[in-house]
Here is the input.
Amino acid sequence: MGVFIALLVIISWASHLAYMLLLQPVNLLDVWFWVHMLIQTWLFTGLFITAHDSMHGTISANRKLNNVIGFSATLLFAGMWYPMLIKKHKMHHVNPGTALDPDYYTGKQNFFI
Here is the structure.
């Protein structure tokens, strides 16, 4: 079921993106433009969730298939390199909230400084 849902998310994201780029006029006053933006944002979040789930090995019991889906989702999500992400994600789970956690920054947290 995980493979079906992952492929559904990826295909839906790609199809809707193609629709928006080819057929949806950019009109900030058109309600449908904003509806499609919300749909695409929701599907984009689905790409991230699919990539994250693949890093945990929960998309498919077949490791190769799981990694192909994860690689595709991370590349589509933000052009990210899946092998590096999976390594960093494991480090994050081994060392959460510490200086060794790649997702945690111990320096100043002020955006403006």
